[in-house]
Amino acid sequence: MKRLLLAGGGQTHALVLRELARAKPADVEIVLVTPSRHLPYSGMLPGWIAGHYSLEEIVIDLDPLVRAAGARLISAHVQTLDLASRTVRTDTGETIGFDTLSIATGATLDVDAIPGARQHALSLRPLDGFIAGWQQIRQRAAAARDTFHLTVIGAGAGGVECALAAAYRLHSVPSVQVQLVTGGLPILPGHGARARSLMRAALRQANVNLIDGVATKLDGAMIELANSLAVSTDATLLVTGASALAWPAQAGLAVDDRGFIAVNAFLQSTSHAWAFAAGDVASLTHAPRPKSGVYALRAAVALANNLIAATTGQPMSAFRPQRLALYLLTTGARNAIASWGPWAFAGKWVWRWKNSIDRGYIAKLRRPTNPQTDP
C-alpha cells in the first residue's frame, strides 16, 4: 500500500481532505501530520479579535475531515525531511515514511528579524499562541491605570486588520492607545490607491496612530526605530510578512530566493516529482502571486486532484491562479473594504458579504463530504 503524507493541517489541507473523502484512491494510506486537531480560521481572526465571533465559531475540528477521508492524524510538527529515504522526522521523535508528500504548512513569521521581538512581542503565528497571548493582553489593557500603548508592527493587510480590530475591541478602555508601525512602507502594499485611501480613513476614524518607521529593536517597553527615534509600548503584536520554513530548503528541495518551495503548474516540486506544495509555503514558478489565503484556498482542489493522479498514475492538471484576487478586509467595526486591483468599495454591506462567505466556508469544513450525497 502506498502512503500519502500531508504535512500541515491548515486551510489548504483541510480542503484537500474534503476532496479526498469524495474520491480517495484505492490502496493509499493517508497520513496528516499537524500540531493541533483544532484549526483557527485566519480569515475570521480579526473578527474574533474585535469580539464579533466567539472562539468556537472560528475553529475547525479536523477530526471529522480526517475520518471522512479515511486518514490518520499524527499530532506533531515536521522538523526534518530526508529526500533519499522519503521520510520525515517530527518533534515527537517519530520517523514517518511516505511515497508521495504534500506540504501545506503555511508560512511563518521571522521573529528574529527584529532583535528582541522573540522575547517582547506576540507573533501572529502560530495562531494558537497568538490567541492565548491576545486574551492576556486584553486583560492587561483593561486593568491599566495609565496610558496603555498597544503596538502593531506591520502595515500589510494582516497588520492593519489586527490594529483596527484591537482598537474596536478596546475602545471602551480610555487608557488604550493603538499604534501601527508601518515598517517604512505605505499601508496595504500591493493594493490599489483607492483601497489604501479607504483604509487610512478607517485608521483615522479609529484613532490608530500611524508611526512611519522601521522597527530595529524591541527592548522591554521600548521600540527602537531606524530613524534613531523610539516609541513606548506596553504590548506589541508582530504581524509582518510571510517567511519560509527552514526544513524544506535544508532537506534539498528546490526553493526560490526567499526559501519558499518552488513548484510547477501542477503544484509539484521542481526538483522532486513526488513532492507537492501549495499555499503560503509554495512559490508558483509558472505564475508568481502574492502570499495570500485567497490563492491558497483556490489551489486546494487542484492539489487534491493532482495528489490523487500522482498516486494512481493518471495525468495531472495545471493550476491556473486568477490574475487578480478579491480581498475583503475588515476595519474593526462591522464594516469592511473590498479590494480588487485598482477598485475598492467600503461599507457595512461588504462586512455582511464577508461574514456570509466566512460562515459558509466554516460550515462546509464542518460538514465532511459524503461522496454519495454531497454534490
Describe this entry's structure for a reader.
By secondary structure, the protein is an alpha/beta fold. The chain is 32% helix and 26% strand. The protein has helices spanning 11-22, 45-50, 55-58, 62-68, 117-120, 127-143, 157-169, 193-205, 247-251, 293-312, 348-365; strands at 2-7, 28-34, 38-40, 59-61, 72-75, 78-82, 87-90, 95-97, 100-103, 122-123, 148-153, 176-181, 209-211, 215-219, 222-225, 230-232, 235-238, 261-263, 275-277, 282-284, 327-331, 333-340, 343-347. The strands form seven sheets. A five-stranded parallel sheet has the order 5-2-1-9-19, covered by helices on one side. Strands 10-17-11-12-13 form a five-stranded parallel sheet. The protein has a three-stranded antiparallel sheet with strand order 6-7-8. The protein is globular and about 65 Å long. The mean pLDDT is 93.
Task: Give the SSE map.
Elements: E1 2-7, H1 11-22, E2 28-34, E3 38-40, H2 45-50, H3 55-58, E4 59-61, H4 62-68, E5 72-75, E6 78-82, E7 87-90, E8 95-97, E9 100-103, H5 117-120, E10 122-123, H6 127-143, E11 148-153, H7 157-169, E12 176-181, H8 193-205, E13 209-211, E14 215-219, E15 222-225, E16 230-232, E17 235-238, H9 247-251, E18 261-263, E19 275-277, E20 282-284, H10 293-312, E21 327-331, E22 333-340, E23 343-347, H11 348-365
Parallel strand pairs: 1-2, 1-9, 2-5, 9-19, 10-17, 11-12, 11-17, 12-13, 18-20
Antiparallel strand pairs: 3-4, 6-7, 7-8, 14-15, 15-16, 21-22, 22-23
Helix pairs in contact: 1-4, 1-10
